[in-house]
Amino acid sequence: MSNKSFLKDLPKSFYQEEKILISNNIKTWDSLLSISDEEINNLIYGSLGSVRNLKRLKCIAYFICTLDIQLNEAALLMHSGLISNKAISRLTPQELVQKTGRFERTLRTGRIPIIDLKKAHFLIEKAKKNLFNVPKCH
Questions:
Q1: Alpha-carbon distance 63 to 32, whole Å?
Q2: Percent of the chain with pLDDT over 90
Q3: Residue 100 to residue 116: CA distance in whole angstroms
Q4: Where in the sequence is the domain holding 123, given as residue range(s)?
Q5: How many separate domains does the chain show?
Q6: 39 vs 61: CA distance, rounded Å
Q7: d(CA 7, CA 20)
Q8: What tens digit of pLDDT does each residue of 70-125 get?
Q9: Which CATH number characterizes residue 95's domain?
Q10: Of the candidates 138, 16, 8, which has an alpha carbon nearest to the alpha carbon of residue 67?
Q11: CB 58 within 8 A of CB 32
Q12: Are residues 82 and 35 in the same domain?
């Protein structure tokens, strides 16, 4: 398993969830992706973490495993309202750039956008190829 598949450098907003995952021996994106909603509820019970944040992390894990992208790119896709490869595969590169760019502008980071037309085309093609494949981290 490559280093990329290990949960690391999660944003501070996921601090409690990261502690829960590590204490339950969920240390890779693959293992996070494989837990069910019922297991998420059981993990959260009696802790300071939230179901909402664990589901967000699971969505990020889905993109990391299916599209082979970095954490920040996967988080951007999720926060831009894209929750599956099917949703991404239906977009044009321009639409994907607009969706992600709109979210980045609301954050007012002032940085160069993470997803440009070239990257958007790559993500859309990869999403189309992985529509029916079982997610597996590389």
A1: 12
A2: 66
A3: 9
A4: 72-133
A5: 2
A6: 16
A7: 12
A8: 999 999 999 999 989 999 999 999 999 999 988 877 777 777 778 899 999 999 99
A9: 1.10.150
A10: 138
A11: yes
A12: no
User: Which amino acid type is present at position 62?
Assistant: Y
Same structural domain, 24 and 51:
yes
Cβ–Cβ under 8 Å, residues 92 and 100:
no
Note whether residue 59 is domain-resident. Answer: yes
d(Cα 99, Cα 80) in Å, to the nearest integer? 6
One-letter-per-residue 3-state SS of the chain: CCHHHECCCCCHHHHHHHHHHHHCCCCEHHHHHCCCHHHHHHHHCCCCCCHHHHHHHHHHHHHHHHHCCCHHHHHHHHHCCCCCHHHHHCCCHHHHHHHHHHHHHHHCCCCCCCCCHHHHHHHHHHHHHCCCCCCCCC
What pTM, to 2 d.p., does this model score?
Answer: 0.84
pLDDT at 110: 73
Are 56 and 31 part of one and the same domain? yes
In a shared domain, residues 27 and 54: yes
